Automatic annotation (TrEMBL):
Pfam families: FtsX, MacB_PCD. The keyword Nucleotide-binding does not apply. This is ABC transporter permease. Belongs to the ABC-4 integral membrane protein family. LolC/E subfamily. The lineage of its organism: Bacteria, Pseudomonadati, Bacteroidota, Cytophagia, Cytophagales. Residues 280-403 form the ABC3 transporter permease C-terminal domain. Residues 33-247 form the MacB-like periplasmic core domain. It comes from the Bacteria. It comes from Reichenbachiella ulvae. InterPro entries: ABC3_permease_C (IPR003838), Lipoprotein-release_system (IPR051447), MacB_PCD (IPR025857). It is found in: Cell membrane. Keywords: Cell membrane, Membrane, Transmembrane, Transmembrane helix.
Length: 412
């Protein structure tokens, strides 16, 4: 008859029995407190990164969808848009498709003007765009109406206004407005409002009006081959700095390329500052979680002092007894992390689907709290929490080395 030998993991077996056995009301409350503290801390960190990512992505997309990631324009010290033009017949323009990092490119031209109605006058900047303009990217910013139509044989006599300008001038879809252009001799055009957009960014909404680039070309006496510049969209996963350097090498001496983020440096610096704030927030939560777990494990050890003395008297090593409480602490941490993940994912899903938490668009550039499902950050935060708290659990275990069997057995 064969003899079956079962190798028992003594510390793990005891820690499971401790977790399952009925404890005193005080110890039970402490264990639950440990689980909830870990859960709330981890959920707060995950939500912070999901919301931060969503906020940064939303603000950046509002800028990039309107102006691209890179801008190629004429190198000049003057501010006259009529004289700042580049030719689409240049070699660089035909070579843009050859670059692996280029997702899309589109031409544009700016023209300063005055938008006038019967009651009001507003200074605006006309952004002339062509049929190449990526209307799908811009669609999220459209509130009403449609985009400019390019079906006319000469140029479209249509405008897309920001909500801010439309409200100020009391214009609606279908209304006509006169645009006076700043040039010599002065010229004007009677245009129809066909769409209203809103990015939430004051730098764009307060003055930018979208129309047909062919109108700007005709006003400036440009041929079809001349434009104000070219906007380039970089594919996701490619560095914008490296893309800018690669394009710069192929440009003529009279042209230069710049990142759109440099034109909105204050906004992008603010977004980076938010990242630092969230990082500080993460460190503080981890410190609090570690402090809570250290305190709770110390209490549990004090609750089990008599048990420690019994195990020592029966020949258990201090290392084995430490593992008992280490496993017990790990079980509490894992329960807390599981609960924290459920809370974070549930709140994120509810906000993503129903936009429960609103925002003031005047101050935050959007009307609800956005979220970004950043699962890389999700897994890294879980791993970081588990490792840091696990290391912190070793601090209270040093108390076990000071427990003497005789004193422990008298403790009860």
């Amino acid at each position: 008859m064969k003899q079956v030998i079962i190798k028992l993991n003594f510390p793990y077996f005891i820690s499971k029995r401790i977790s399952k056995d009925e404890q005193s009301n005080f110890a039970t409350t402490i264990s639950r407190l440990a689980v909830f503290s870990i859960a709330l801390g981890l959920a707060a960190m995950i939500l912070a990164y999901f919301i931060l990512g969503g906020f940064q992505k939303t603000v950046k997309d509002k800028i990039y969808n309107f102006k691209g990631h890179l801008e190629i324009s004429k190198y000049t010290l003057g501010g006259n848009f009529d004289e700042n033009f580049i030719s689409l017949g240049s070699d660089f323009y035909s070579d843009l498709e050859a670059y692996e990092f280029v997702d899309h490119y589109q031409s544009y031209a700016y023209k300063a003007g005055m938008l006038r109605t019967k009651e009001e006058v507003e200074g605006v900047m006309i952004k002339g765009v062509s049929q190449e303009f990526d209307t799908l990217r811009f669609q999220d910013n459209m509130l009403a109406g449609r985009f400019v139509s390019f079906s006319d044989s000469s140029y479209s006599k249509e405008l897309v206004l920001s909500k801010r300008i439309a409200n100020k001038l009391q214009l609606e879809i279908g209304d006509k407005a006169t645009v006076y252009f700043v040039q010599n001799p002065p010229k004007f055009r009677r245009l129809e409002v066909v769409g209203i957009y809103e990015t939430g960014l004051e730098e764009i909404d307060k003055s930018m009006v979208i129309s047909d680039i062919r109108m700007v070309q005709k006003l400036n006496n440009w041929p079809d081959s001349l434009v104000g510049g070219v906007e380039v969209f970089v594919k996701e996963g490619y560095s914008k700095d490296e893309a800018m350097d690669a394009l710069f090498e192929s440009l003529d001496a009279s042209l230069y390329v710049d990142k759109v983020s440099n034109s909105y440096a204050q906004i992008f610096d603010w977004l980076e500052l938010l990242t630092q704030n969230v990082s500080v927030f993460l460190v503080l939560i981890l410190v609090v979680a570690c402090f809570n777990m250290i305190s709770i494990l110390l209490i549990l050890i004090m609750e089990r002092t008599y048990m420690i003395g019994v195990f020592q008297a029966l020949g258990a090593s201090r290392s084995q007894i430490k593992k008992v409480f280490m496993y017990n602490g790990m079980i509490l941490v894992l329960k807390g992390m599981l609960l924290g993940n459920v809370i974070a994912l549930l709140v994120t899903w509810l906000q993503d689907q129903f936009h429960i938490i609103p925002l003031d668009p005047i101050n935050y550039y959007m009307d609800f709290v956005p979220v970004d499902w950043n699962f890389k950050a999700f897994f890294l935060l879980n791993l970081l929490t588990f490792i840091v708290v696990l290391i912190a659990l070793r601090v209270p275990l040093a108390v076990i080395t000071r427990v003497k069997p005789v004193s422990a057995l008298k403790f009860d």
